[in-house]
Design goal:
Largest sheet: 3 strands, parallel
Low-confidence stretches: none
Order of helices and strands: EEHHEHEEEE
Distance between the termini: 21 Å
Length: 118
């Protein structure tokens, strides 16, 4: 399956110099979406992953069905102030800005085999 035909490309979005890859056509196409998750599951199983980390927002779309399919735990990564209890934070920069991500403090333990899906 040629997945490129299911991904729109928008140049200079959200600002000049960025080439934005739009997945909306891919997730609207059930066969393409299923194919992507099945292929990701092959990799995750080969790596013996037991935790899928999913940053907002596209990570939620792909990581949730992947975790379900392989029987892994799911660790949401959110913007500041969205998770209750103790969290750990990490600042990051993108080509169009910077922000901070948070996850539950002890969600990932030593020995976990983690895949980040974004």
């Amino acid at each position: 399956m040629d997945l490129k035909e299911n991904i729109g490309i928008y140049e200079d979005f959200p600002k000049e110099g960025i080439s934005f890859k739009d997945i909306n056509s891919l997730i609207l196409n059930p066969k393409a979406f299923q194919h992507v998750i099945d292929e990701m599951a092959k990799v995750a199983k080969a790596l013996d992953a037991n935790i899928i980390v999913i940053p907002e927002a596209r990570g939620y779309i792909f990581g949730t069905p992947l975790a379900y399919l392989i029987g892994a735990g799911l660790v949401p990564v959110r913007k500041p102030g969205k998770l209750p209890g103790e969290v750990s934070s990490e600042a990051y920069d993108l080509e169009y800005g910077s922000n901070i991500n948070e996850k539950k403090k002890n969600a990932i333990k030593p020995g976990d085999r983690v895949i980040i899906v974004d």
